[in-house]
Write a structure and sequence with these properties.
- The protein has 16 helices and no strands.
- Helix 7 runs antiparallel to helix 8 and helix 12 runs antiparallel to helix 13.
- By secondary structure, it is mainly alpha-helical.
């Protein structure tokens, strides 16, 4: 059992919609016009509605109402557009997972919180939209395990009250890898760029790859901050446990004080509601 084989086997089950692939290919070509992208998006009424709702959310904070897909594309830009299309589509990709293991609305609320928080933390970074996508997708490996190995996943979740480190250790013991490694492999097979899937892969060990050290630390910090806003499984969480050492290290690495973290949480809570409503 290894992440690459599992990701390959489930790729047909957990696949991106054709419209997402077409948009991704157009943007990757470097020659896509706003009009071409508008035509593809407009062929999917549900996606069009979600995109416009998203564009008008406080997540972007645009002045004035965005009423057309063409205007949304011109304001957002192609890279952000690709990520928004992915975000509005991916939540419907994972279906049929037992509610005994996870409540999907809670899971996506937590994932969106991670994405919004990561994007806020990366406010001084170019192309920071990728931090939102990494946060949104950081836990998809867990959904694959829930779907394909429900009994083993239940055993892993039984360690939840002992903290995230205990859960990670249980994954390695039972599966031989973590859900972060599995999720990164799926994102790689979805042809997402390394600066997204590398973040997901190293979320539990952000100092492992020097090239993506800052990115992985930002995602790790965002996940730990989001854990105080919204848990992501149906297991009881012990809120009185001390802050994980991993969280303290990443917050220190990024220079995050308690005041900054509180401020980020306040803004994130406001944005998450609108983003969640737009995506779900």
């Amino acid at each position: 059992m290894d992440p690459r084989t599992i990701a390959t086997n489930v790729r047909s089950i957990f696949s991106l919609p054709d419209v997402v692939i077409r948009i991704n290919d157009l943007i990757d070509s470097g020659e896509a016009s706003n009009f071409e992208l508008e035509q593809v998006i407009s062929s999917d009424p549900a996606l069009t509605a979600k995109l416009l709702k998203f564009a008008n959310s406080t997540y972007f904070g645009f002045s004035g109402k965005v009423e057309t897909v063409l205007k949304a594309i011109s304001i957002i830009g192609h890279k952000e557009l690709r990520n928004l299309v992915l975000a509005t589509s991916v939540t419907s990709t994972f279906k049929g997972i037992s509610s005994d293991l996870v409540d999907m609305d809670t899971f996506w609320n937590h994932s969106i919180t991670c994405g919004v928080t990561a994007r806020l933390l990366a406010s001084g970074v170019d192309s920071r939209e990728r931090f939102f996508i990494a946060g949104l997708l950081h836990g998809v490996g867990r959904l694959i395990l829930f779907s394909q190995y429900p009994e083993e996943s239940a055993k892993v979740l039984s360690y939840m009250n002992q903290g995230e480190d205990a859960v990670i250790h249980a994954e390695r013991k039972i599966f031989g890898f973590t859900h972060a490694q599995l999720g990164a492999e799926l994102l790689k097979q979805w042809k997402l760029p390394p600066n997204i899937w590398k973040m997901v892969e190293h979320q539990f060990d952000p100092m492992q790859d020097a090239e993506y050290e800052y990115d992985a630390n930002t995602l790790c910090a965002a996940i730990n901050i989001a854990n105080y806003i919204q848990p992501c499984t149906n297991q009881k969480i012990n809120y009185e446990e001390t802050i994980p050492e991993r969280a303290l290290k990443t917050w220190s690495y990024l220079g995050l004080s308690a005041e900054i973290i509180e401020s980020v949480m306040t803004v994130a809570k406001l944005q998450v509601v609108e983003v969640f409503n737009a995506i779900r």
